[in-house]
Every structure is written in structure tokens, then in C-alpha cells.
Design brief:
about 350 residues; Ubiquitin-like (UB roll); 5-stranded mixed sheet; 7 strands
């Protein structure tokens, strides 16, 4: 029989086998067709379909269900068997553990997320190249790498194997949102001072300003769109409910910061919608509001010898009773006996 070292050349090849586990104290008898990675040992296969190996286990294999069964060592790989006997199609396991063993060695199960988070961890991965650029990085990818650098300074790491995918996704969603407002921090913060419904950009993201250098590209600065802002806000909200951020103590601060940024973008999106509605309402009025400087003139007239005309007496009385430098906003419905 071939040695177990034969598994090194088999890669991750799978083959179909008939797998039978005899009835024992832990579970009833089972018979099923399974696709098995031949690089696994018989002990690994047993544990996959039965449970942790704290019992007395016997493994056997055969070329037919009614043929002779041959004992195999649990440490042997399936590949080492089928490499010599390619007609092997049937595998059988029997477990003769007693009830006391089962109770004493019953495994304690952990929360799946806790098990993942206890694995070896690594930093978020930076980008080394940008699409459509032969040399260097785009400004957006520089923003992405700066986010990764900040996460590294904070000691934020992910389990090895997930940092490349999960970490890249978190950074990309946050990068997209910050890129959208990189030239509009002042605009949003000014609006937040005048409107209670608008929220300012979280202070922690103040450093990510001016990455999109539109002057260097000789283009106009992109205007904020309520639709884009709301889209980025919802993407950030979806990040906040991911177990990586909401279920990991190390990421709770980042979770709150991302949620605050999402609230900011959502609030400013609603503000833009309200502003647009108010503008349309003013434009649809019978007397549309216009800029005073462009649509008005001032003329000075001498006092008439015969006194104030009857139709101007109300506005004259209002102006006479006003304090010095107190403006009077003329309303023809109020200040004239008969509107124009």
C-alpha cells in the first residue's frame, strides 16, 4: 500500500464514493454518496461525517459493496489507497465508543463568528497598482491606501484569509463615499450651521479633503447629487450591520464613525431634495422671486408741495413710524389702498 506522502501530488482532486457509517451510540447508520477530496486522511473523512475522533474507530474500503472489506490506517490518505487500487469505490466506518466516553468527551461548541475571529489575523491590504495607469496610483487609490494606513495605526486587523476580501470591501465602500464628498466638506459643514436637519462631516474624516484635484485635470468640480449621496449612505449603513463591524469590539469605534458619515450623507441628500422643491415652488409662483440687485432700481424724488397722495398714505405712515435704518418690506396688499 502506498505511503501517505502520495497525497502531495494529488492537489485538490475530488472523487465520488459510497460512504457508510455504522450505527453507534452517537448517531444512526448512514449510507450516502459523497464527493471526497482524495488528499484527506481517513480520520479527516470520518470527522467530517461523524464528529471529533475521541472513540475507537475502524476504517475499511472495498471495490464493491458485497466484496471483501480491507482495513486501512486512519492516518493514510484516500489518495494513497486509490493510487494503488483505483477501483476502490466503497468506504465504511465503525465506531465502538461507549456511553461514558461520549459523555466525558462531548465537545463544547463555540460561536462560529468567535471561532473565525480567533484565527491568525493580518492587516488590511494596500493597493500597488491602478487600472488604466502604467505608473503610480490614481488619487482615489491613494485615498484607499490612506484609509488602510489609518486602520493599521489603530490596530484594526481581520482573520487571515478574510482581510483581502472583507477588508478590501469595507475600505472600498468607505473610500467611494469619501471620494464623493472630498471637495464638498466646507459646503456640507456650512449648511449644517444654518440648518438643524443637516449634519456636519465627522471630524475623523476631515483629513480626506481635496483628493479629486479638478483644477489639475482642468475640469469643473462635480456637483453633489441627492441620488448619489443617498446611494453611498445606504452602502455605509449596510457596512454597519456586517458582523465584522457590529460584532467585533475592536471595530466598534469605526462602526460609529461610519454610521455618523452615513447619517451626514443621508441628511444632506434630504436637504438637497428640499432645496430643489422650494426652488421649483418659487419658480412656479405668479410673481417669481428674483434677485433684487438685477431686477430693481432706486429713484429719489422731492417732496410734493401738495402732500402725500391718498394711495401712498399707508406706506408713508409705516415708514414714518419705523426706527432709523429699520427696513420696510413693501407689500402692495398691505401698504396700498388699491394694489397695482
Amino acid at each position: 500500500m502506498a505511503s501517505t506522502s502520495g497525497s502531495s501530488s494529488c492537489g485538490n482532486m475530488n472523487k465520488l464514493f459510497s460512504l457508510k457509517t455504522e450505527k453507534c451510540l452517537h448517531q444512526p447508520a448512514k449510507l450516502k454518496l459523497v464527493n471526497i477530496d482524495v488528499s484527506k486522511t481517513f480520520l479527516n473523512i470520518f470527522e467530517d461525517h461523524h464528529g471529533p475522533n475521541f472513540y475507537h474507530v475502524c476504517a475499511q474500503c472495498s471495490t464493491s459493496q458485497c466484496g471483501d472489506w480491507h482495513d486501512v490506517e486512519l492516518t493514510s490518505t484516500l489518495y494513497s489507497i486509490v493510487d494503488v487500487f483505483p477501483n476502490i469505490k466503497f468506504i465504511k466506518f465503525s465506531c465502538d465508543g461507549n456511553a461514558q466516553e461520549v459523555e466525558e468527551h462531548r465537545p463544547t461548541y463555540q460561536n462560529a463568528f468567535d471561532r473565525i475571529m480567533q484565527r491568525e489575523e493580518e492587516d488590511f491590504e494596500k493597493r500597488t497598482a491602478s487600472a488604466r495607469m502604467k505608473i503610480g496610483l490614481s488619487r482615489k487609490d491613494e485615498l484607499f491606501n490612506d484609509l488602510v494606513g489609518e486602520f493599521k495605526e489603530r490596530g484594526l486587523t481581520l482573520p487571515k484569509g478574510t482581510a483581502k476580501i472583507e477588508g478590501s470591501y469595507i475600505c472600498q465602500v468607505l473610500c467611494n463615499a469619501l471620494w464623493c464628498i472630498t471637495n464638498h466638506h466646507i459646503t456640507i459643514n456650512d449648511a449644517s450651521r444654518n440648518r438643524s436637519s443637516v449634519k456636519s462631516v465627522p471630524i475623523v474624516f476631515d483629513k480626506y479633503v481635496g483628493y479629486d484635484d479638478f483644477k489639475r485635470k482642468k475640469t469643473k468640480c462635480n456637483q453633489l447629487s441627492s441620488g448619489f449621496l443617498e446611494s453611498h449612505a445606504q452602502a455605509l449603513y449596510s457596512l454597519c450591520i456586517k458582523p465584522t463591524l457590529s460584532g467585533n469590539k475592536k471595530f466598534l469605534r469605526l462602526h460609529d464613525e461610519i454610521k455618523a458619515l452615513a447619517d451626514c450623507l443621508h441628511a444632506y441628500s434630504e436637504f438637497l431634495i428640499t432645496q430643489n422643491q422650494e426652488t421649483k415652488k418659487r419658480q412656479n409662483m405668479d410673481h417669481p422671486v428674483r434677485s433684487v440687485g438685477q431686477n430693481s432700481t432706486v429713484t429719489h424724488r422731492c417732496k410734493a408741495h401738495f402732500g402725500i397722495q391718498e394711495k401712498f398714505k399707508i406706506i408713508n405712515q409705516t415708514m414714518s413710524s419705523a426706527e432709523l435704518n429699520e427696513p420696510i418690506f413693501f407689500n402692495e396688499d398691505i401698504h396700498l389702498l388699491q394694489p397695482f
